[in-house]
Design a protein that fits this description.
It comes from Actinoplanes missouriensis (strain ATCC 14538 / DSM 43046 / CBS 188.64 / JCM 3121 / NBRC 102363 / NCIMB 12654 / NRRL B-3342 / UNCC 431). The chain is of the alpha/beta class. 46% of the residues lie in helices and 15% in strands.
């Protein structure tokens, strides 16, 4: 199983340094999320800051994990993907996700109606633009009609892999039907991957389909410290209405109610870890000593082609996140 990393940095320079450390540790892909930074800008920094192996073969991949599919036009997304693949010398992977309704409508002012066909249309348009034909047309929930335009630069590759993020069964099935890979939510334990996600992916996917599970990984010689750092990650999602049913189904409904009430009362969503019991941290993250984390990572073997790991950062001072990432990089290096 490939181990990927979602690097963190207080500055872009520090983030690139972390990506280089991941490359040295043997990570397979570095992924750029989209929340506090632009996924495409971050991916550009990662692409130029990492390298290819001797002999010209790809060394570490670079991907958006994930870029918001609706906040940009599908054509701009395709053009950015082609640019990034050029910067990465053929190592780029385009990861896309819908985000939730409030993020699209309130933050970015874009429609969120019928997200499933809208995402399907986005993938089709991106592929048509990347194919380089003239005209480029598609009619659907999301449409395009471009005539007299052709990208005048030779592509690095004929095909840029597209990954889709999905949690619910319909989005997971869409990834299986239309994409080259699936990217999991960072709260996706092995049992959920095995029992809920993989049966849907296997129903339609090709043999070369890349299943990328994800997990927050908090490593410390003191397992209580490791859990404390990871707790804010779980607390953040416990306060989000979209995940309430998932937590209720697992027996943590009371925690979601407390987290939602705390959020309404003015507490920061990044600082709700004190409401999360250790059992919930253990259920949804990889947190503990290096040995405990190795065992938890091994549980994904045979279920996923890759595991995207990220250090805890929610509600933590920069120095503490930095320390947590150093521990994660050491762990990844010991597993290669």
């Amino acid at each position: 199983m490939r181990l990927d990393l979602q690097p963190w940095g207080e500055t872009m320079a520090e983030l690139v340094t972390a990506a280089r450390a991941a490359e040295s540790a043997g990570a397979g892909v570095v992924w750029a999320p989209e929340l506090h930074r632009s996924a495409f800008t971050t991916a550009a920094a990662l692409a130029t800051g990492t390298s290819k192996a001797a002999g010209g073969e790809s060394r570490i991949g670079v991907g958006t994990g994930i870029a918001l599919a609706f906040a940009r036009s599908a054509m701009l997304t395709a053009i950015a993907a082609a640019d990034l693949d050029e910067l990465a010398e053929g190592r780029f992977r385009l990861g896309l996700g819908t985000g939730v309704a409030r993020l699209n409508q309130d933050w970015h002012g874009v429609p969120f109606e019928r997200p499933l066909p809208r995402l399907r249309d986005t993938v089709e348009i991106v592929r048509k633009v990347l194919a380089g034909g003239d005209p480029v047309t598609h009619k659907g929930v999301r449409s395009i009609r471009v005539r007299g335009w052709r990208r005048p630069y030779p592509p690095v590759r004929e095909h840029i892999p597209i990954y889709l993020a999905g949690v619910g069964p319909a989005m997971v099935a869409l990834a299986a039907q239309t994409a080259d890979g699936w990217i999991g939510h960072e709260l996706c334990p092995p049992a959920d991957l095995r029992d809920r996600i993989l049966p849907t992916l296997r129903s339609a996917r090709r043999d070369d389909f890349d299943v990328v599970a994800a997990a927050c990984c908090s490593v410390d010689d003191d397992p209580r410290e490791a859990r404390r750092r990871a707790a804010n990650v779980v607390g953040f999602y416990a306060s989000v209405r979209s995940y309430a049913e998932m937590f209720r189904h697992a027996g943590f409904g009371a925690v979601t109610e407390k987290a939602s009430a705390a959020l309404r009362g003015g507490r920061s969503a990044d600082d709700l870890g004190d409401l999360v019991p250790e059992a919930m941290v253990d259920a949804y993250t990889i947190a503990g000593t290096p040995g405990q984390c190795r065992s938890r990572i091994a549980a994904y073997d045979g279920l996923a082609g890759a595991l995207k790991l990220s250090a805890p950062s929610y509600g933590l001072p920069a120095d503490e996140t930095r320390h947590a990432q150093e521990g994660l990089l050491t762990l990844v290096g010991s597993l290669r």
